Amino acid sequence: MKATDIAGAVARVEGATCQRVLVALEGLELPGENAFGERVTVERGADVPALVRRMARAAAEGERVGLIARAEDLAGARADLARLAAGGLGVVVHALTEPAAPGSVESGVASALSLDDLPWGMLVGSGTADAIDLALVARRAAEDSGCPFFVVHERPPASRLEPPGVALTRELVEAFLGGPRSSRPAQPATSERAFAERAPFALASSMRGLEALSTRRHDVIERAPGKDCGLGLVGIGALGDALLADVERQRAAGHDVAAVRVVAWRPFPGPRLVKALHRALAITVLEAVDRPLAGSGPLALHLKASFADALTWAPDYPGIGRIPRIVSGAVAAGRELDATDLDAVVDNLLADERGKRSFVLDGPPGAGLRAAVR
Fold first, then answer.
1. 172-192 burial: b if 16+ Cβ within 10 Å, else e
2. pLDDT, tens digit, 9 for 90 and up, residues 30-88
3. Smallest Cα–Cα separation from 193: which of 142, 246, 132, 145?
4. Given pLDDT bands bounded at 50, 70 and 90, which one contains residue 2?
5. Which residues have CB under 8 Å from 180's CB, separation 6+?
6. What are the pLDDT digits (tens) for 103-130?
7. Which of 179, 218, 300, 337 could form a disulfide with 207 if both were Cys (CB 3.0 to 4.6 A apart)?
8. What domains can be seen in the chain, in order of their start residue?
């Protein structure tokens, strides 16, 4: 295992699959040819809306194209991103987030989630292995559905050791993507909402296809352990990864805890989350996005809405008879989690109705949970 820069991993996979890559970051090197032996055209610039428009033109002309930019910079291209989606172009945009600075309001993964009202798919990775794997998954899902995809990459404050992602061999890329082809889907859109019907199936098929070729399992959620538990911890991106990594320690301490990391933010896997967590008595949703005036963070709101749908027998949802107690936890910008923080989160769940229903982790590690003002 070795430390690898996430941006470099993204550049490798886009260079291996695309004919044209647009880059709004400094210092990224891409190969001269992709896995199909075609020349890779690299266009660089600081004007992200202009790059999005160029990407749309290239995709409409039949090129496989991608964009790599900072999530904060993509906010200024909202109108162009919406128009691109309306054209049914299956492109991929990599939104790289910077480590959240202490005291910042809209940074880190929050800047990427601010784009989630656009008609785009969105996958949220954690680390370089996810950077490679989810880039491939998003590419195939986008081209099969005609729905463009964001892949959100959280850049950690420091390099870390982790297993490598899928090996980008020519044989794997050809088998998975089916050769060089147009970014425009073959099937015409039957309605303005047709992409919403196709995207979930295309994403599931893409994840199964990559697993079959690489033996690396992928799903719209990751869960540990794979059985029902009394307590649940839910997160997205790096925080979700931290919850998965700590769950074995919590269970060894005698706590009946399961952890879930949400990988697909759009389409949101509400039925899958309810199925994974409906037997829990209490759940904490831990997220790096604080929305004080919303009552809960965005992931907690989505989870509550999913349970409400299940309770009222919405289509595709499992039927349930009750909703677990759901606690909304926010981690302050620049705050690193440690074992004492997660112990405090679990202790809060075990306190039943005496525990906090919302909290903020913003002090030094081990300082405990501060009640959120709602």
1. bbeebbeebeebbbeeeeeee
2. 999 999 999 999 999 999 999 999 999 999 999 999 999 999 999 999 999 999 999 99
3. 145
4. very low
5. 19, 34, 36, 38, 64
6. 565 657 899 999 999 999 999 999 999 9
7. 218
8. 6-214 (3.40.50.970), 221-371 (3.40.50.920)
